[in-house]
Structure formats: structure tokens, C-alpha cells
Design goal:
Elements lengths: L1 E7 L10 E4 L9 E10 L2 H7 L7 E7 L3 E9 L11 E4 L12 E5 L3 E3 L6 H5 L2 H14 L12 E5 L4 H12 L3 E5 L3 H10 L3 E3 L5 H7 L5 E6 L3 H11 E9 L18 E4 L4 H5 L6 H14 L7 E5 L4 H12 L6 E5 L4
Parallel strand pairs: 9-10, 9-12, 10-11, 12-13, 13-14, 15-16
Antiparallel strand pairs: 1-2, 1-4, 3-5, 3-7, 3-16, 5-6, 6-8
Helix pairs in contact: 3-4, 3-9
The structure holds NADP nicotinamide-adenine-dinucleotide phosphate.
């Protein structure tokens, strides 16, 4: 089968950083689906892993990156109960297994859902990794109950125009939250409003000062999709007593957790690969939450964050996609569709 892989961890400007390769078609294990991949999306985790081991490390076999996919179930393992061949699915896979940048891909059925009926493969591939992240952040980490009691409460979403921020804003609106998002450019600010943000601040300026000007000096929840340590002092200042903060990006230097003690603030990490990585008892929650997200899509409650599609799925287009993400200026999601004939 066709795939895009790496054997060395190189800068994206190097034409060897991602290569077109031929690999054997994999065989499904007990709980696996073998999926014929039709579209993939690119996430910052792909670029981080592509750089992770440095240029001197050499892999014996090509490593396949990429975790978001939409496609069709081709075959199922002997213990699969949720899907049959022919079903259209979408999912974000597991970081501990080969990625989706291949024509055929194995994935545990418990982290897969039926593709939203109203989205084509490209729109569907743009959704899962970021939707799992935002859903788990709001529901599992910050304890927000959707479609219920959050009226009058406010969430600050730092990095509102990126892949995660785009879906987080929409999920927060489903939870009836007032959304204050951040973006630094006119085009990313207007994208935040299109995704449903009630207010947009500029994260290159003082967040506390801008909140004061909105007569909203503190917020109930903060979801930070950007650098944790850069925004830490502002988050500590503007979070309400007994509020909740969820971050998704590793700190590169220590942050002062004591700064949250007087306010009894809850701090939580979200890592969307935790359930598949540790095979947690509740791993099937990812199947359920992606099914719920698909229902919201089909009910017209979630719009696509897709802003760019490249075709076909090959090394040259994937290198272009990685380079775009590494700029840190992504608005919405970038997807690749179809395999070269
Ligand atoms: N823990 C997890 O499970 C998990 C899951 C998904 C993603 N992540 C991580 O979360 C981060 C965001 O992912 P993503 O897919 O949303 O990335 P993305 O789409 O590449 O994010 C791009 C956005 O980041 C904004 N941004 C750039 N610098 C910023 C800053 N200093 N402060 C606030 N916002 C800033 C930009 O807004 P402007 O252009 O307007 O400045 C841009 O719209 C990545 O580091 C990714 O690896 C973690």
C-alpha cells in the first residue's frame, strides 16, 4: 500500500523529511478495524513527532505519522462488535500505533465513530483529534455539562482560531457558555467570531486589561490551547475563585501552581491520546463522544473548521502541510484527500 513515512527526523525544508513509501497492508487484530483511508488532517503533534528524535537518529523501517482520518471500514477483527465492512468512519487513532498517513490503517474500534452523514470525507477528517481534545477538556477535565446549566458562565479560550480553538468555541456554545476567544490578527479574529465567539481579545496584549474593558474581570473557565507558561500569570489573575483551568501544551519551564491555591482553582491537563495510550477502562468514551459530535454536526450545531484541502496524499503535499502548521499561524484545519493513482 502507499504511505508517507520517515526514517530520519529532519526539518521540513529537507525533502527527505517525509517520503513516499510502499508498505505491506496490515492485518487487523481482535478489536481492530482495517480502514481504507480517504482523507487525513494534519495536527501540530505530527510535526512535533517528526522533529522529536533529532536528525542523527535513523529508523530501520519507515515510521508513519498522522492521526486524524476519515475512510471506509475494509475488514474487521474477530472481536469487533461496533462496525462492519463498508461503514464510513472518522477517528484520531493512537499515538502508540502507526499513523493514518497510509492507504490502509488499523484502529481500535472503541475510539472510532460513524462519520457525520452531512460531512464529506475531507470535512470529517478535519474534526476528530481536535473535537476529542475540546470535548474531553470541557466535559472530563473541567466538569462542564453540555446542553444544560452553564448559562451565565464564561470561558476564555486562548488561541481561538487554531484547530483546537475552532471546535472548542463551538462546543462551548453548545454548553451555553459565553465564549471569549483570543486571536492576534484581523483574519484570525474574524474567524473566531465565525466559529461563534461572543468576544475576541488579542493574546499579544494584556488579557486582564482587555477583560476589564469588557466589564468581565474574571472568568469561570479557561481553556488554553497555546503555550502554558506564556499565559500562566494572566490565567492565574483572571480565573474566578473556584474556577477551572485546562491546558493542553507541555510547559517548557516550571509554572507556579501555588498561585492557584488561594482561589481553590482546579487545574487539569488534557491529553487526547491518554485513553488509547493506556487502554483505560473507559476507552470506549471516545467512540461515544465522536458519535455525539457527529450528531451535533448532522443537527447543524457544528460547522466545519476546514480552511484548506490539498490533494493527493503524498510526501510533497504533506511537507507543505507540516510547514504551514509549523508557522504557528494556522486558521482552522488543513486536510489532504485521495491517493495518487
Ligand atoms: N494535549 C492534547 O491532547 C492536544 C491536542 C491537540 C493539540 N494540542 C496542542 O495544542 C496546540 C494547539 O493545537 P492546534 O491544532 O489548535 O494548533 P494550530 O491550529 O496550529 O494553532 C494555530 C493558532 O495558534 C494561535 N497562536 C499562536 N501563537 C499564540 C500565542 N502565543 N498565544 C495564543 N495563541 C497563539 C494562532 O493565532 P493568531 O494567528 O491569531 O496569533 C493560530 O490561529 C499545539 O501545540 C498542539 O500540539 C494538544
Amino acid at each position: 500500500m502507499k504511505a508517507v513515512g520517515l526514517t530520519r527526523y529532519l526539518p521540513i525544508t529537507d525533502s527527505e523529511s517525509l517520503r513516499d513509501v510502499e508498505l505491506p497492508k496490515p492485518e487487523p487484530g481482535d478489536r481492530d478495524l482495517l480502514v481504507r483511508v480517504e482523507a487525513i488532517s494534519v495536527n501540530p503533534v505530527d510535526t512535533k513527532i517528526r522533529r522529536s528524535k533529532g536528525p542523527d537518529h535513523q529508523e530501520a523501517l519507515p515510521q508513519v505519522l498522522g492521526w486524524d482520518a476519515a475512510g471506509v471500514v475494509e475488514a474487521v477483527g474477530s472481536k469487533v462488535t461496533l462496525f462492519q465492512p463498508g461503514i464510513e468512519v472518522y477517528y484520531a487513532g493512537s499515538i502508540t500505533r502507526p499513523g493514518t498517513n497510509s492507504e490502509y490503517h488499523l484502529v481500535d474500534e472503541r475510539i472510532v465513530a460513524k462519520k457525520p452523514r452531512s460531512f464529506d470525507m475531507a470535512y470529517a477528517a478535519a474534526l476528530p483529534l481536535t473535537a476529542i481534545t475540546a470535548y474531553e477538556a470541557f466535559c472530563d477535565r473541567m466538569g462542564i455539562v453540555f446542553e444544560s446549566d452553564s448559562v451565565g458562565k464564561t470561558v476564555l479560550i486562548i488561541g481561538g482560531a487554531g484547530g483546537v480553538g475552532s471546535i472548542a468555541t463551538q462546543i462551548a456554545k453548545i454548553a451555553n457558555l459565553r465564549v471569549i476567544a483570543t486571536a492576534s490578527r484581523p483574519e484570525s479574529q474574524s474567524w473566531c467570531r465565525k466559529m461563534g465567539a461572543d468576544e475576541v481579545l488579542d493574546h499579544t496584549k494584556s488579557i486582564p486589561d482587555q477583560l476589564q474593558r469588557l466589564n468581565c474581570s474574571t472568568v469561570d473557565y479557561i481553556f488554553n490551547t497555546s503555550t502554558t507558561e506564556q499565559h500562566w500569570p494572566a490565567m492565574c489573575e483572571v480565573i474566578k475563585p473556584q474556577g477551572r483551568i485546562c491546558c493542553i501544551v507541555d510547559t517548557t519551564k516550571a509554572v507556579d501552581l501555588n498561585a492557584l491555591k488561594r482561589k481553590s482553582v482546579t487545574f487539569a491537563w488534557e491529553f487526547m491520546f491518554t485513553r488509547p495510550m493506556y487502554q483505560t477502562d473507559d476507552i470506549v468514551e471516545q467512540h461515544k463522544l465522536l458519535t455525539q459530535v457527529a450528531r451535533w454536526v448532522d443537527a447543524g450545531m457544528i460547522q466545519s473548521a476546514l480552511t484548506e484541502t490539498l490533494s493527493p496524499i503524498n510526501a510533497a503535499n504533506l511537507r507543505a502541510a507540516h510547514a504551514k502548521l509549523e508557522s504557528g499561524r494556522m486558521i482552522g484545519k488543513l486536510v489532504l484527500t485521495g491517493w495518487p493513482s
